[in-house]
Amino acid sequence: MKSKIARQAVVLLSGGLDSATVLYLAKRRGYLCHCLIFDYGQLHKKEIASAIKIAKACAAAYKVLKIDFPWKGSALIDKKIKVPSKISRGVPVTYLPGRNIIFLSFALSFAETIKAGAIFIGAHAQDYSGYPDCRPEFLKAFSKMAKSGTLGKFNILAPLLHKNKSQIILLGKKLKVPFNLTWSCYRGQILPCRKCDSCYYRAKGFKEAGVIDTLIK
Predict the structure, then answer these.
(1) How many domains does the chain have?
(2) How distant, in Å, are the alpha carbons of 12, 161, 162 from that of 137?
(3) Per-residue pLDDT reduced to its tens digit, 118-158
(4) Distance from C-alpha of 181 to C-alpha of 28, rounded to nearest angstrom
(5) pTM of the model
């Protein structure tokens, strides 16, 4: 009798708690996960190191892809643009034009090549309030394009899309996500700065969830 072949999935893994939760959720759903980690010129590499640690902790395969945005355009990759120390209104300076479109395109090619049935991304409600490439309509449109522009048969899944940060944290806790390995801060210091947007929403989420953030305990 032939053994059952596990369903395969490509997971975009950034090193943050959202993508880590998505990875553990995909594994819980029975997928054999292949993580894509991007080195896209970030001013710090802590999130890349965190992503690798998370992939290993989840016993998932991973690839680190080095790409370049020579035109800059975001505080994440341009030293001339400062990461704000207060909550941003509208589209924040940490938005990198086209990033998710590019990341998903790589995932699309990878998924079609290995015949994976799904692509997972950690976009959620808090993100798409500020980042246009995290909006539900964008993901729906990209999924439609993927089905008409490739030979692959897969779904693009954003299981956290309508959850807030505290709900994501509670789900991650249930899935036993190693939050201490994740990195959310936009700055690459030894400890999170606790001032940038990402640190603020992470701290707020843990507080509302009633969970201790073991990264800064």
Answers:
(1) 1
(2) 19, 11, 13
(3) 999 999 977 656 788 889 999 999 999 998 999 988 899 99
(4) 19
(5) 0.94
